[in-house]
Amino acid sequence: MILASLISTALVIIFCLNAINRTGEKPNGNILLGVTLPHHALNESAVAEIVKKYRTAHLLLALIFLILAMPILLISEYIFISLFYLWIWADVFIYLNQKIVQKYFIKLCTLKNEQKWWIGTNHIVSIDTEVSRLKNTFLVSNKWFIAPFTITIITMA
Questions:
Q1: What is the pLDDT of residues 87-123, one digit of tens each?
Q2: CA distance 148 to 146
Q3: Alpha-carbon Rg for the chain in angstroms
Q4: Do the strands 31-32 and 35-36 form a parallel or antiparallel pair, or are they unpaired?
Q5: CB atoms inside a 10 Å sphere around CB 62
Q6: Of 9, 22, 2, nearest to 97 (Cα)?
Q7: Numbers of helices and strands, H then E, in the chain
Q8: E strand or H helix at 31, and its extent?
Q9: Which of helix, strand or coil describes residue 36?
Q10: Whole-model pTM above 0.85?
Q11: Among 101, 89, 127, CA closest to 9
């Protein structure tokens, strides 16, 4: 029973991260991989190449981690070790997934800067001086924290 749960958890993690990553490779308006591009740039071959490499990297990562999930079958008798392995496996998988997303985001941003694919102009935003003056003021008196602090100290003792 525990073996099926662990393997299904690993498969769900792989499936969900793959589904999430697929949404980034399809243009949402003019946003691709989290980068805003002009509409004409979405059809550029360099952009398509970056998206293709992004997809390939994620599929390769998913395949590697599918294989790395198989040792759970061997250590399923030891529940704590199995759970610990799955926890480390998931952490490393999510970390490497995020690194791939960052890598291709940076590549697409670099291409955008090289091609000078800017949309619109930069806007300078000014705020009210009273808002900036009150930004760092403490809205609640420090005395309100005495009771929770005291309760915490008493329960720890």
A1: 999 999 999 999 999 999 999 999 988 888 876 665 6
A2: 6
A3: 24
A4: antiparallel
A5: 18
A6: 22
A7: 6, 2
A8: strand 31-32
A9: strand
A10: no
A11: 89
